[in-house]
Amino acid sequence: DCIQLARCFEATRRRCCRLEQEGRRARQQLARVEAERAALEVKLKHARNQVEVEMKKRHRAEAELEKQERKLQLVLEFLTREPWGSGALSGEQSSVLNALAGRRLGAALAAGRRSSSAAGESCQSLLSHSDISYDHTEDDVVRR
């Protein structure tokens, strides 16, 4: 009975040693994963900031484009509607102005604006940091 009890103690001691080693490895792996997660969170924060900066630049550029389009449209309207303007222009200049003032310019500008804003909205929805959230509940489970 004593020998069998000693064998059981030895088996239990070996099992405890093995479990301690597994526990150390698991803690080391956890530390590595937590360090990696922290690094990825920093990268995510930088990426979100970069997206925000680029979106602001894009909005400023779009506003400037619309401003310039309005100016161009006003100049075209002014040149084509003024009686002295149409007479002072050469035939080639008049045809260029008519082409610019025609439906193609308005349609092209509107279509370009629609496609760029649609693409921008799509990109913005994909990259919106409000859509990306980090759930800490998994961390709570691991740490317990």
Automatic annotation (TrEMBL):
**What is a biological process (GO) this protein takes part in?**
mitotic cytokinesis
Q: Which organism is it from?
A: Todus mexicanus
Q: Which domain of life is it from?
A: Eukaryota
Q: Which GO terms describe its cellular component?
A: centralspindlin complex; cleavage furrow; midbody; nucleus; spindle midzone
Which keywords belong to this entry? Coiled coil
Q: Which residues form a coiled coil?
A: 23-82
Single GO MF descriptor: GTPase activator activity
Under which name does UniProt file this protein? Answer: RGAP1 protein
Its gene name is Racgap1_1
